[in-house]
Amino acid sequence: MSNARLETRIWALQRATAAVLAFCVFVHLGMIIYAVQDGLSAAEIISRISGNLAWLAFYAVFIVAVALHAPIGIRVILNEMTNLSRKQTHLIMAALCLIILVMGFRAIIGLYTAGAGA
Amino acid sequence: MTNTIKVSVWRGAEEGEFAQYEVPRQPSQTVLDVITYIQRHIDPTLSYRFACRVGVCGSCAMTVNGKPRWTCRTHVDKVALDGTLQVAPLRNLEVVKDLACDMTTFFDKMNRAEGKFHPTKSRDDDFDFVLPDDAKRKQASAGIECIGCGVCYAACDIVEWNKDYLGPAALNRAWTLVNDVRDGGNDERLAAVSGDAGCHACHSQQGCVEHCPKHISPTRAIAGLKRATVKAAIKGMLGGDD
Amino acid sequence: MKTGAHRNHPHYWAFLLHRGSGILLTLFLPAHFYVLGLAIEKTATMDGFLSWSATPLAKIAETALVILLAAHLTGGLRLMALEFFGTRESSKIAVCVGAGIALVTGLIFLLNGT
Fold it and tell me: Which architecture characterizes domain A4-113 according to CATH?
């Protein structure tokens, strides 16, 4: 007996996070292209993001959206292309979500607070 | 242009091999003509299906040079460009013998997708008036010409990768009924077509659209089902335990 | 046996690109966060890394990543357009336009950074 409602909601969440990410990626790509103009350095990245609440909020949204979007996408690929059980797939999804959240927030919070004591 | 064609035909069932035949070329020859020639003049043990042979029934669907098609509507001149042909049974279906497949799963999935009409009126009620330019009627009209030939099912990658996937034809049929205002079974139907085995498994590769001999777009029907099922899921319908 | 002939059309290639870029981006993401995380404690290491990233090989890799991201985005837009707006045969042209935009984005990145 398949769980139609839950699976449909997961699919809908995938599309919703995709819409959020479309906006985030436009901003991120635009910023990257602008930022690499005169070469890249840690100082430059920090100066842009440190203490800037807007960038923090933006990247927080970005990270949460990716942390949901990527595992759901990987789930589909695992179900179609491998013989892994549902449980194994869910474990991999959860692990991926956690990795993205932890590493992502560590990076953005680190950049936001960097240079604060300098 | 040579006056014979070299034809490679699948012989056996799931296990088997390609057998080679040489068939004389004729003007306006179709692949079905070629298969018929082989069975009548070369090897009477060859098994294959056909019925109308004029492109209305869909019985003669096979894999020709890797693509699922109606063999009665495939001209040899168009596909045997180097004088060779390869004919195999339809993909994604169990092979009974040679070029004939077991269509049971295909039709079972039509049922599982609730591709059947649920009446809401009795003989004592008045007729339903559905105008031809009604929006839902147009949606239904776009898909009702399906004759269940199985070509889209054979072309679909998701059917190949996901054994439970209902498939383009079953989902297209379900969508025509979702748009039938006389039908009363939409709650069960939307639940039946949701989830990993339903419309949400489709990635819109459109192999079905590419190959449908009636130029139906199951992808468009499936997109409609996606929208309808998401609305139902948000409303808390579709059944299932959270 | 002739296999894959039924997959030789634009929407299948678009799907393949979308899935492939998704997988590669997912694998890239932890590495990306790790490098950014270096800014916190190991600024010198990060600058060392960033000057490595100015080499031609790294530039090509970065351009490829930008293209992958843009490709995944345009592939996703194709999907959402089909699912929510129901486009038709002309969407094959949209696939090509999307691929073109992804490539151009990568080129702009490459040209801007060199």
Answer: Up-down Bundle (1.20)
Tens of pLDDT along B58-72? 999 999 999 999 999
CA distance B171 to B197: 11
Q: Helix or strand or coil: residue B132? A: coil
The rounded distance, in Å, linking the Cα atoms of B60 and B38 is 15
Please give the backbone phi and psi of residue C110, each rounded to the nearest 5 degrees, phi first: -65, -45
Are B241 and A3 a contacting pair at CB < 8 A? yes
Q: How far is B133 from chain C (nearest CA, A)?
A: 18
This model of the complex carries an ipTM of 0.85
Asked whether residue B88 falls in the same domain as residue B52, the answer is yes
DSSP state of B52: S
Name the minimum distance, in Å, from the CA of C15 to any CA of chain A: 12
> CA of A1 to nearest chain C CA: how many angstroms apart?
26
The 10s digit of each residue's pLDDT in C58-80 is 777 778 888 888 889 888 888 88
Q: Where are the beta strands (DSSP E) in chain C?
A: none
Nearest to C70 among A29, A34, A73 (CB): A29
CB C28 within 8 A of CB C65: yes
The residue from B85, B101, B117 where one domain ends is: B101
**Residue B200 domain-assigned (yes or no):** yes
Please name the residue of chain C whose CA is at the shortest distance from the CA of residue B85: C2
Using a CB-CB distance cutoff of 8 angstroms, which residues of chain A are in contact with residue C50?
40-42
Give dist(CA A77, CA B179) in Å, integer.
Answer: 32
Contact C35, A45 (CB under 8 A): no
**Do B158 and B38 sit in the same domain of this protein?**
no
Same domain, B71 and B182: no
Q: How many beta-carbon pairs below 8 A join chains B and C?
A: 57
